[in-house]
Design a protein that fits this description.
The complex is a heterodimer of chains A (about 300) and B (about 375).
Chain A: H1 5-11, H2 18-29, H3 31-62, H4 73-78, H5 81-113, H6 117-128, H7 135-146, H8 151-158, H9 172-196, H10 201-208, H11 213-241, H12 245-250, H13 258-267, H14 272-309
Helix pairs in contact in A: 3-14, 5-9, 5-11, 9-11, 10-11, 11-14, 13-14
Chain B: E1 23-32, E2 35-45, E3 50-54, H1 61-69, E4 76-81, E5 84-85, H2 91-94, E6 97-100, H3 111-121, H4 126-139, H5 155-167, E7 174-177, H6 185-202, E8 206-210, H7 213-219, E9 222-227, E10 230-235, H8 237-242, H9 247-254, E11 257-266, E12 271-275, E13 280-283, E14 294-298, E15 303-307, E16 313-323, E17 326-333, E18 341-347, E19 357-362, E20 368-371
Parallel strand pairs in B: 3-8, 3-9, 6-7, 7-8
Antiparallel strand pairs in B: 1-2, 1-4, 4-5, 9-10, 11-12, 11-14, 12-13, 14-20, 15-19, 16-17, 16-19, 17-18
Helix pairs in contact in B: 3-4, 3-5
Classes of the chains: A mainly alpha (about 300), B alpha+beta (about 375).
Chain lengths: ~300, ~375
């Protein structure tokens, strides 16, 4: 302390806030801290310009009235009439999509995790490579496949499948199929990583104790994959919330999602304030999803602790 | 994490006792791509017996255990547990208990849930389940840790949970595959005592696999010494130690000295071996296949010093090493350079001086004679 005393004296003489200043000085005088801050500077500047500033200005736009004063009526508008319906549609389609992506992803990842390394690598490539192709091209691919005279309907009609041809485009089925295909690589990759990490001798140990295949799956395998399922589900749900292209191209009037609404408000109505409010709502929904994820995890933990006590 | 690794000696729960069943293995055989891992292994294990498969890696001990467990299907032979043929049964239908070296506790379950799991599978009513899990955990001194997850426990505690999980459903046989292999020496000694106590008091049939001779000697009622997929000898520790039937057993268990020579005289109550170094060594009576050369085997602890000139061999003390209460002594014997050194273990007070001239004797009861495999025996 004696060494530091002259420093604090010169910066803030006889002031009751001295201790904090002193600590700050000490931190700043650490060479490693200074070096670290220096290194972090580009990232900080980058984030400030490209992340904090846009979000902040969007937030400002969303609470700016026509007269320039403060208002919340853009938010009220977002939760009213057609806009509210679009918001609910977005949530519903996101939920349907992430559920389908989870189930399909689970089956795929489980199958791939059983393959020999070489085949697993190839299968993974098949799952991931479509992701490198432009989303626009992929979506048009789906449109060709699912159209009234597309491959799927032609095959179904040829085998006299009852009810064929089906309306697979410009409705919710089309949107969910298309968006699920976009989300699939994420869920497969996340689940595959978790499944690979499971000690394969654990199910064998359960079998040795007398557990059947279904019980092993339900009591051992599924609980071990569960964290991955939750992560993959929340991730695809969040990604879905703001997804624009596929729902816009493969959906109909009734499948308008928030991203399309924002697009319409900005491009057609030049309504930046309303669009900003919608954007902020999407952002908050995303945060809510992440918070729910955390809460769900700790609640599960607490429940387990209590269950074990009985 | 405080290490609460002393198992209290509580009364053992009656619900667990007397569950051991006999095991009969007949001409078990398993090959992997042309290599024979287990070759015509047969053994009878009594109910409540502790049997160890002892051997180095690749001796077929683990493969034999895995076939009894059902994780690995034999090419031929049969496995009968408690009168039921289990040779082709899936592991979950056999109802046996397992303890593995890697514990294999379920990481997403608490200690309590891990131990309750096999009982839940069997549809045990809730009240009884609670009582049995409680009793088993208490016996292992784990009651205080019932709500912890396996990763919050030390290695020794985890292995005790694994033991509880295997005990709780009273399996007819418990199979243990090097369960103490991952633990340090002190903990291993402690758990050996505990496993042995529980096994004896509950009357469990245990089949145990290890490569550690000392562990096998401490735990087992009988030991099957395995080599190249066969059982060299299946006997009590004492028999194996005092009357090894092959040079391998004598070496593996007793680290015996092998002294080459020829049979000079064979009578009903002794065998006289003329050693290559010149001396005569008297051995217990035993069947020795006719061979031009034999090996007389004596364990280091069974040799006694005597004045030079007496005994079957005379030599010079080459090294003296203190090992706690024992001294390890090597004596370079006279005559013949290839005879090498004889190793002795003596009480610390009886250590000879370096370079002293000494003679060696041994009780004939402690001397085994084998045909020398290097000379067409």
């Amino acid at each position: 302390m004696a060494v530091l005393a002259p420093v604090s004296d010169s910066t803030a003489p006889a002031h009751h806030k001295t201790p904090r200043k002193k600590r700050l000085n000490r931190v700043w005088s650490d060479r490693r801290t200074r070096f670290g801050l220096f290194n972090a500077a580009p990232v900080v500047v980058y984030l400030l310009i490209l992340f904090v500033y846009p979000i902040f200005s969007t937030l400002m736009l969303s609470i700016e009235g026509e007269d320039g004063g403060f208002t919340l009526h853009w938010y009220a508008d977002a939760f009213r009439g057609a806009n509210l319906e679009i918001l609910l549609t977005t949530l519903r389609i996101s939920a349907e999509t992430s559920l389908l992506a989870l189930v399909t992803g689970f089956l795929l990842a489980a199958a791939i995790s059983r393959l020999k390394p070489l085949w697993a690598g190839l299968a993974m490539l098949v799952v991931v490579v479509p992701h490198f192709i432009s989303a626009l091209v992929r979506t048009y691919g789906w449109i060709i496949l699912l159209g009234d005279n597309g491959v799927v309907n032609n095959v179904l009609t040829d085998i006299h499948f009852p009810g064929a041809p089906f309306q697979l485009l410009y409705n919710e089925i089309g949107v969910v199929i298309g968006t699920t295909a976009v989300m699939l690589p994420y869920t497969v990759l996340l689940l595959y990583a978790v499944m690979k990490g499971i000690d394969r001798r654990l199910p064998a140990a359960a079998a040795g104790m007398g557990a059947g295949r279904l019980t092993i799956f339900r009591r051992v395998y599924l609980p071990l994959v569960a964290p991955g399922l939750v992560n993959a589900g929340v991730l695809s749900f969040i990604l879905c919330l703001g997804y624009y292209l596929t729902p816009a191209l493969m959906g109909g009037e009734k499948q308008t999602m928030v991203a399309s609404l924002i697009d319409e408000q900005v491009m057609k109505q030049n309504q930046w304030n309303g669009a900003s409010a919608l954007g902020i709502i999407l952002l908050l929904l995303t945060f809510a999803g992440l918070v729910l994820l955390r809460l769900g995890r700790s609640a599960g933990e607490a429940l387990r602790k209590r269950g074990a006590a009985s | 994490m405080p290490e609460a690794d002393v198992m209290p000696s509580l009364a053992l729960p009656e619900t667990l006792t007397g569950s051991g069943k006999p095991v009969s293995v007949t001409r078990l055989r398993k090959t992997y791509g042309g290599v024979t891992a287990v070759d015509e292994v047969s053994m009878e294990i009594a109910a409540g017996e502790f049997v160890t498969f002892l051997g180095s890696s690749g001796s077929g001990k683990t493969t034999t255990l895995m076939m009894i467990a059902g994780f690995c299907e034999p090419d031929s032979g049969s496995i009968v547990v408690g009168g039921h043929d289990m040779t082709r049964l899936a592991p979950q239908k056999r109802g046996l208990g397992f303890v593995f070296q890697q514990y294999l506790l379920f990481p997403h379950m608490t200690v309590w849930e891990n131990v309750a799991f096999p009982l839940q599978l069997r549809g045990v009513p809730k009240a009884e389940l609670r009582r049995r899990v409680g009793e088993t955990l208490e016996m292992a001194g784990l009651s205080a840790m019932a709500r912890r997850r396996p990763r919050e426990l030390s290695g020794g505690q985890q292995q005790r949970v694994a033991l509880c999980r295997a005990l709780v459903y009273r399996p007819p046989v418990i199979l243990m595959d090097e369960p103490l292999g991952a633990l340090d020496k002190k903990l291993r000694d402690q758990l050996q005592t505990e496993i042995k106590r529980i096994q004896r008091e509950l009357g469990l049939t245990v089949i145990y696999v290890t490569h550690d001779q000392e562990e096998a000697l401490v735990l087992s009622d009988r030991i099957a010494v395995m080599r190249d997929g066969r059982i060299d000898q299946f006997d009590t520790p004492q028999e194996l130690f005092e009357r090894p039937r092959t040079p391998f057993v004598a070496d593996f268990l007793g680290a015996a000295n092998f002294l080459p020579g020829q049979v000079a005289e064979q009578t009903a109550d002794h065998i006289l071996v003329r050693l290559d170094t010149g001396g005569l060594l008297k051995a217990r009576p035993q069947a020795v296949p006719p061979a031009p050369k034999v090996l007389a085997a004596v364990q280091p602890g069974r040799l006694v010093l005597c004045p030079a000139g007496d005994g079957f061999c005379t030599g010079t003390v080459e090294t003296v090493t203190y090992v706690g209460t024992l001294v390890r002594v090597t004596v370079r014997s006279d005559g013949g350079a290839d005879t090498g050194c004889v190793r002795l273990e003596l009480p610390a007070g009886r250590a000879p001086a370096l370079g002293a001239r000494v003679g060696l004797t041994a009780d004939p009861g402690n001397v085994s004679v084998f045909a020398d495999p290097e000379h067409g025996g």
